[in-house]
Amino acid sequence: MDNTVEAGEKGRPERGQGFLIFVCFFAYAAGYIGRLDYSAAMPAILSEFQWSKTDMGIIASAFFFCYGAGQFVNGILVGRYNVRLTVSGALLVSAALNGAFPFCRSIAAMAVVWGLNGAAQSVLWCTIMRGLSERVHAKKPRETAITVMSVTVPVGTLAAYGLAALFSRLNAWRVPFFVSAGVLIGAAALYFIGARGAPARIACAAEKVSAAGEAPAGKGSAARKKAAVPFGTAALLIGVLFICAAADGFLKDGLTSWTPILLFETYALDPSLSILLTLALPLCAVGGAYLARYLMYWMKNHFAACGAALGAIGLLFLPLVLGAGSLWLTVALLSAVACLRAAIGNILTSRMPFDIRHTVNAGRTAGVLDAFAYVGSIAAGVGIGAIATASGWGAVLLVLCVVAAAAGTVTALGAPMWRRRILSRSARPSVVGGEPSAPENDAADGAPHS
């Protein structure tokens, strides 16, 4: 029996949506623990093996490369996946690789294992987002899902760095990898059981057209022709999205991976203390989901909101570039950067996919945008380590400042086109700022968002 319901259908099921959101939250937060334990352990690994920062960056970039490539592939294929089996299987594979990593003794072995972990983890976000977008129907649960899924990143980061700080103090950096493996196995079991009772999924516009067969010529064809975005305009908008998302990835993983070592080397801290201070970043990043909501409410434009946040990040880096950063000022400024960056990530990989879910598969959109971000992450993995080795951390901070300012400028310049070509065609509440001004039936306008 088909358990699919159409968008806007009265009496659609609400029961079980809250538990599904929790299951998805736990699964992705566990996945984040299983991807950040290497970044959190970097100071301890550096001290034990005496490798260069460039060598450490190679291992991180192996993960980012496989993750980014996997996002492109999974973003295209996600519509064919069995969501429940795919997410559970990816979590189990990641658990096995986390358990294997501590036994590696060379850069090559670590890079291979961690790269495979990136490939397994690349399945999670786009598949989970597809499942949520198909099964969370009403407006309020949808907003809850967006906010809750955005909190998975700081929660997972806090857990990973907290474990690393504790066991680094005990000279046991390998233990968190085994703990992560256990958490991932538990998350796989919970998702496999919990997703079974998910509510009926909502049909997107593309599926309804496919189910109905070829649409008759005339009014429908004319509407689609009128709604079409010119190729050149679409290419420009995709280019701006790429720059914005890649800059976001460069900043996110540049900070997440390298802040413990930056504090460790710049202020001569104990490795465990540098990791502990880094916990301020994900704590502040929790506010990013709420900041994203208010940015969208004020600016009513994805590009304008991301451009403003990137510009603010560039300004926050200036005191550090000019050498005015004491330890506590540095931690405070980097924490503010983490909050702004989390808001950008929320807009790009959570709000935007949900906004266009009736026309374009939300998992595909989330996967492609996340893949764009991981192009920046790859550059951060090797690039920041190489720059720090060659020119010091002052040069790294300058690069981060320039990247944020340049990407913010480009994104802001693209905002009028985004509004004119995309947002003007939509009357959906989440697109125009989060305050409902349209009926509950989001699919009523029928206009594409991309």
Descriptive key words:
18 helices; 450 residues; mainly alpha; two-stranded parallel sheet
Describe this structure as you would to a colleague:
A two-stranded parallel sheet has the order 1-2. It contains 18 helices and 2 strands. It has one domain: Growth Hormone, Chain: A, CATH 1.20.1250. With 450 residues, the chain is an all-alpha fold. It is globular and about 55 Å long. The two termini are 33 Å apart.
Shape: globular
In quaternary terms, these chains amount to single chain
Strand content: under 5%
Number of domains: 1
Average residue-wise pLDDT = 81
Secondary-structure content class: mainly alpha
Query: From the 3D coordinates, which CATH architecture would you assign?
Result: Up-down Bundle
Low-pLDDT runs of 5+ residues are 1-13, 202-219, 427-450
CATH topology: Growth Hormone, Chain: A
* SSE topology string: EHHHHHHHEHHHHHHHHHHH
Report the helical percentage. Answer: over 70%
Count of alpha and pi helical runs: 18
CATH class label = Mainly Alpha
Q: What is the end-to-end distance?
A: 33 Å
Largest sheet: 2 strands, parallel
User: Roughly how many Å is the radius of gyration?
Assistant: 22 Å
